[in-house]
Amino acid sequence: MPLDQIDVDEFEDQMTFLEHLEALRWHLIRGIIAIVLGAVFSFINGKYIFDSILLGSTKNDFWTYRTLCDLSHFIYDTDRICIEVMGFKLQALDIQEQFYQHFMIAIIGGLIIAMPYLLYEIYRFIKPALKNSEKKYSSLVIGFSSLLFFAGVLFGYYILSPISVNFLANYSLSDSIERNFKVSSVINFISLLTLGAGIIFELPIVVYFLSKIGLLTAETMKRYRRIAIIVILIISAIITPPDVMSQIILTFPILILYEIGIFIARKVSPKVPIETP
């Protein structure tokens, strides 16, 4: 190709495989630094995060339980669905358990705090592959991704966690069994539900990028809708306790996100030109 036909700007944007690896390395380093900074903040405030946030759904004065009680008074005019006593105690059975959980709280907090910046670093990595018309919507995509993640975290924290904790904590095979749970078990359980819901809520963003590169279309999502519903039910069963109500509560918003994904795929899928005879 003659030199005068080469687009200089396009040439400068092209990178070799090793240059891509080097760029990815620095994106990862900056992302890890952001997580570490968030983790340091969470570690310093570990006692407050542990007592007031992570263990919130283990206390009967939690916002969700109080709301259910108010709803019970409004509908039934009784304490029919009020949760007055949780009926279990937390125990640290290993000498190092509380110390390890402090670090676990810090890592989880750092990941949640740094998530908007992590999404920004992901965007910076894929930015060279975007068109100029797509780059101007970058702030909107990053903001929407962060909004979806935090919406999922709040959904998992205020809806899934209290329902699941209440179900499992009060489930008993016999009245002679004393319900005392390890601190690590409760923390890991609540963290899995909360972070899992936040990640699952990123489904529309995943659909957006897969549709942009032509790997997913609205027609494909419609065609495999029934299979997707089965997969969603399986995912809900994995990250929720064996409680049908919890699975339904998680499945419903995921189905809504799936339908939103179909709409997004229809809007952003590359248009195939029609060949004229």
How much strand?
A: under 5%
Shape: globular
List segments where confidence is low: pLDDT < 50 over at least 5 consecutive residues. Answer: 1-12, 272-277
Total count of strands:
2
Helix coverage percent? over 70%
Q: Report how far apart the termini are.
A: 31 Å
Average pLDDT over all residues: 80
With helices defined by DSSP (H or I, 4 residues minimum), what is the helix count?
12
Radius of gyration computed on alpha carbons: 24 Å
- Could you give the order of the helices and strands? HHHHEHHHEHHHHH
What is the makeup of the main sheet? 2 strands, parallel
Would you spell out the secondary-structure blueprint of this structure?
Elements: H1 8-13, H2 17-44, H3 46-54, H4 63-75, E1 89-91, H5 97-126, H6 132-135, H7 138-169, E2 180-182, H8 183-200, H9 203-212, H10 218-223, H11 225-239, H12 244-268
Parallel strand pairs: 1-2
Helix pairs in contact: 2-5, 5-7, 5-8, 7-8, 9-12, 11-12
Q: How is this structure best described in words?
A:
By secondary structure, the chain is mainly alpha-helical. The chain has two domains: 3-198, no CATH class; 202-277, no CATH class. It is built from twelve helices and two strands, in the order ααααβαααβααααα. The chain has a two-stranded parallel ribbon. Helix 7 runs antiparallel to helix 8. It is globular. Residues 1-12 and 272-277 have low confidence and may be disordered.
Put the structure in a nutshell:
This protein is mainly α and 277 residues long. Helix content is 71%, strand content 2%.
